[in-house]
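Structure ticket #2291
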Amino acid sequence: MMNNDYALELNGIRKSFLGRRVLKEVDLAVPTGSVFAFLGNNGEGKSTTIKILTGLAAPDQGSVVICGKKLFRPKNHFAKRSQQAPDYKVLKNLGALIESPSIYPNLTAREFLSIGCKIKRLPKSEIAHVLDIVSLTEGEKDLISHFSLGMKQRLAIAHALLGSPTLLILDEPTNGLDPHGIRDIRRLLSDLPDMTNTTVFFSSHNLDEVEKMASDFAVLKDGKIQICTDMPSWKKSQQVNMVLEVSTANRAWELLLAHGFNCSVVNERCLNVNNIRHQQQANLHALLIRSGFELYQSYYQKLTLEQWFANENSL
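Resolution: structure written out below.
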């Protein structure tokens, strides 16, 4: 089903290689205007999915819909589903950066982007527009060989933005960057939907950055989407733990366990109380103090996306 609320839809995508089914039944809807993170461990099929989204591989079964239009169509009336070919008119709505950027270090940024304009049959006025978006206007006449890795990555994203695509697909956009470069990419991707009306779909293993910049995310596991949600809803759903620093953690653990609290010892002075309601905090403090414990500090703590992902994938 095609829906203008979604920039990208995957419906029943299956893909096998040498008899091994990599993608079993992938269904996914990416909201228009979102910064959407596509997560999963190595070997789960993320790269295969991205190749299908960009027309570099065809699904054995299922459909890909970009901006309301099907990406793949049969080569002829008698072709099997595995012989589907991408519709290049649909691909014009797409900008992509797969793996490391392919750039020419002996060219300036403007010269490099001018090649992209020629290939895409775009006016050279596009160059100034995309350089401004990625904050490289001042370096447009500098040789790319003098750019930092972060600047090269932003230039590659500028190249993908030529022609004002409605969907931008990025594979590990912060991979290999230093903290400064990662921060620049985070700011850029977070701002892109408002600046350009472009929906951003990216894969990443840097879950700390994903939590900071993604508006939505999905997890691919065992060839299927295990969870697909927006970031605020996910954060709201996570259990809240209370961290307590006391005089003797083992004795405090025994006391709290006897009173029905779900807790665990971190070290000799620290323990976690899991999934505790805010209104229980005063009662817990009073119980410890009445029982002769010294309570040094207590604070609430939610799992980070990285911690949650590690727990989910350890089951």
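Closing remark: The CA atoms of residues 145 and 152 lie 9 Å apart.
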